[in-house]
Amino acid sequence: SSGINAEWPLRPGKTLMEPTMDPETLPVWNFDGSSTMQSLGQNSDIYIKPVACFKDPFRRGDNILVMCETLDHEGNVHPTNKRRSCFENMEKCKEVIPWFGIEQEYTMFDFTGRQPYGWPSNGYPGPQGPYYCGVGSDKVKGRKIVEAHYRACMYAGIMIAGSNAEVMPSQWEYQVGPCEGITMGDHLWVSRWILSRIAEEFNVVISYDPKPIPGDWNGAGCHTNISTLAMREEGGLEKIYEAIELMGKKHEEHIHDYDPSGGEDNKRRLTGLHETASFEKFNFGVAHRGASIRIPRQVAADGKGYFEDRRPSSNADPYVVTDRIVRTICLGE
Q: Does pTM surpass 0.90?
């Protein structure tokens, strides 16, 4: 069994006496929080409480990966534990059956973490254009990692839905969902851990920086697709517009929660260029990839479905993002 902390992708190992996939049957454990800057050395133990289990695609057999919440020495929610608030708010609005699908973009770097994987050692690759959904060794780098990650996620039980090469060379995307409520954060965090673990085998570093290369290169986002039961039913488009109106009134709060630096990371990405809207303004549109929120063309035609929030940064915490969304559109906060 393995514990995964949602702030840093830790993996301490632990042997169990019998196989299980039920987190309620697993013991509360602990780790040295002073080594992860989550506590002081004189009071270092941080509790980890199992909350979700996945099959281990590396050790296989009866082995499992375990998503855990972090608790302080008194058993209270640790400040780095963003899952608990998300879980509580998802419970408050579970009757609307919120579904999420997240498009996780990332960039591969060589083992130094400084040079994009496969880029020329001196200079840059050709301009963007032929790399998106590309094929061929002159256009695509790292496909073995992408394929291995996809298969590992499927084995683990992650709700992975697709993948594609992105606009910047060595940049990729995979999609997870639809997931209901708290499971969105659980599945995305574990999928990120699996990706970094696989990349390790290839001596490659995975970067979630929203603008890893400055200049005329696309950044990386974590586009979040949202719907409630009412939006998915006949006449749901009206409910979608109502939700978008609510989100527009809370634009600054969403920008603050859409990256781990209170919006500062995303400012380098949300410039109004490279398929983004400016972080300074809120807008939306049908099939508009330069908007804060996009309504897919098919959704507008069907009159129901979902909408896409294009603002979250690639390094966003999915618990914080989905929590902020339901607080805005479901709980009126």
A: yes
